[in-house]
Specification:
Number of helices: 10
Number of domains: 2
Distance between the termini: 34 Å
Helix content: 55-70%
Shape: elongated
Order of helices and strands: HHHHHHHHHH
Radius of gyration: 19 Å
Length: 155
């Protein structure tokens, strides 16, 4: 029993040391709706979860992802975009980003309930919709105010 536990722990450690960094690196840039690439990456991530949990390849993966606390590609992308926007919001990013992102109160002088939200720039193509310039403010504006506060933990 302990041998099985230790091998599962080793697989888990190996996954987070050798595989996970590739999914994490520059995720906010490359994980923007390229469904063919994302599907292939999701399949490789599923295989890794099967190995870690010693499950059959026919097992449903959603419970396995939850059990191992491994995020799907889409969840990892949302988390990293939210962390990026948190850093922008708190002024923890280089000054360039303060010119890229602005709040609605900077665009117009009307006192609206969305004045503190980030302004979404007009975009004409669907590809631009998924870039960090548009997707970041969209995600950040959709979050609950408690999450956006200082309680938000970033890495």
């Amino acid at each position: 029993m302990t041998l099985h536990y230790h091998s599962k722990r080793k697989h888990f450690s190996l996954y987070f040391a050798l595989v996970h960094p590739y999914y994490e690196y520059a995720n906010i840039v490359w994980a923007v709706r390229n469904t063919v690439v994302l599907q292939k990456l999701f399949i490789t991530r599923k295989r890794a979860v099967y190995v870690i949990t010693n499950s059959s390849c026919y097992a449903h993966t959603y419970p396995l992802f939850r059990k191992t606390h491994i995020l799907t590609i889409q969840e990892l992308h949302k988390l990293q975009v939210a962390c990026f926007m948190f850093k922008v919001d708190k002024g923890l990013m280089p000054p360039y980003f303060s010119s890229v992102f602005c709040i609605n109160a900077d665009v117009h002088s009307y006192n609206t309930r969305f004045a503190s939200n980030y302004h979404i720039t007009v975009h004409w193509t669907s590809l631009l919709h998924y870039t960090i310039r548009i997707a970041g403010p969209l995600l950040w504006n959709s979050l609950d105010s408690n999450i956006k506060s200082n309680q938000f933990k970033y890495f």
